[in-house]
Amino acid sequence: MGMNNLCKNKENHNLKDISNISYKETKDPKDMERTYITTLQTKSIAVIVPIYNVAPYLKQCIESILSQSHINFKLFLCDDESSDESLQIALEYAQKDTRIFVFSQKNAGQGSARNIGILTAGGRLNFQNKEELKQNLEAKTFGNLKDEMKTFKGFKSYFCYTGKKLIQAFICQKAIKDFESLLNPDTQIQDTPNFDYLCFIDSDDFIKPNTFKNYLYYIQGVDFLYSGFEYFFDGVEKDENLRTHFQNYRITKEGVISDKDFIFINIYTGIRSFCFVCQGMINHSLVYKNKLLYPSDIYAEDLLFGVLLVGISSRIYVLQKAFYVYRIRTSSSCAYQSQYKAPPRFNNILESFNGDCNLLKEYLRVQSSIVTAQKILAWANNYKDREKANSIKRVFVPTYCKRAKLILNFSIDPLNLKKQFYALKPYLNATEKTGAIKRVKNQLSYKIGLKLMDYANNHIGIKTLILKIALIATIHKIKLGFSKLYFIANPKRKPLALEDYKDFKEAFELKNQEVYQLGCKFLQMRFTLRGFKHFLLELRR
After folding, report:
1. Where are the domains of the chain?
2. What is the pLDDT of residues 3-49, one digit of tens each?
3. Is 160 exposed, middle or buried (0-12, 13-18, 19+ CB in 10 A)?
4. Which helix (H) or strand (E) holds 316?
5. I want to staple 372 with a disulfide (CB 3.0 to 4.6 A). Which of 259, 304, 458, 504 is the partner?
């Protein structure tokens, strides 16, 4: 048996760490203006802004959007039953600009509010039942909304959302324009999506001039744009230690990266979590085809959306420039605040915690982790690309299961989360096992590398080296054959991927050491007598 056949090996030798991930197709800002004029001016954007009690900041947010140099967009302002003047401000702007559409719903969370925009942009909100629709017109669900609606008679772009149905609520001769035509169960607002891209902006934040023009330039040819942002400290002390998402992921370059590299960044940094809301722009067709939505009625709904967005994407443009301005204030929904104010939809749960909003917040975080883990598993079990689905499941689910473990610290559990957590326990310790280092040391590259080092240090002669390598390769090939048969018969016992072990970083470092790399070079060498002699000569130098 020839040495070439003995040493055939399927190990991945193209090992990289986070510092040398390939960022391809970096775009030149100098080409942006020409490209925009020739191909991008007609691109349409659905801009989705969820609104909840942001009256002091909403005007700045809307003005920053309306002042964009790219004007081909529709702005969906989705109010989540604000108790301040937010809805009134939104409606006033909508009267001035026909690109603005205002939506109202019973308090259900920012995720649900964003979904109204996504579903409307994709034509997926419809009227399902004539009697139920009529009842909803008179139901208490609308509360004060009916009175607010009547103050804007003749207003064509104000809609109410009841949880399942979208109702155009401008008042003129009829209560609803084309009411009867909308009662058909099969009728949709539109049949196909007519937007090229989706962009989410939080209603207390704002964007810089030319944001859309830049986003459009950099998103071409990829699934989503992952852009930088900067903090704006409003009424709170500036925190010099507050890091951006790029700093957390140790991303210092820009350009197109693959979904696999993006997942690897999560693995290598140990974050294993990805939220996406306002950090860029998304190709609308990707969201539409995969029916991607935010989970409704949970805290931190952006965690699941981000993970699944990576799951359905293949190419991502990482843009270092910061066009988005993220406001840090005392009463926002972010973790920066010291005192959490519970939205109305959580009042029943709040009573169980005797009005302790901060304790409720911690409980809702646990619930969010459980729901996120459950939905990632459900998605992974049904996604057609099994390799990608399993990768997403392995990398991200254990993270949320660990966070969910905090439910054991609660003596009060009104949502019965403990039972749901116990169902997730099999995934809890998926990244706690060690064994990556042992796996690397059992690889052919490492074993041959050790013998080559012995030869280089004059511990063994050339004949001994050849015999030992031949013996190692023969035994390795036999073991590999038995292992394949064993795992075919016992698929559940198949070993984890290296990155799923607790000691994966040490294993990657071992792969980068001289011993392993030497073995890789030997296996990649053409096995001719001349080439073999040259390799050994170089080894002894």
Report:
1. 3-17+434-540, 339-427
2. 444 444 444 434 456 666 878 888 988 899 999 999 999 999 999 99
3. buried
4. strand 315-328
5. 304
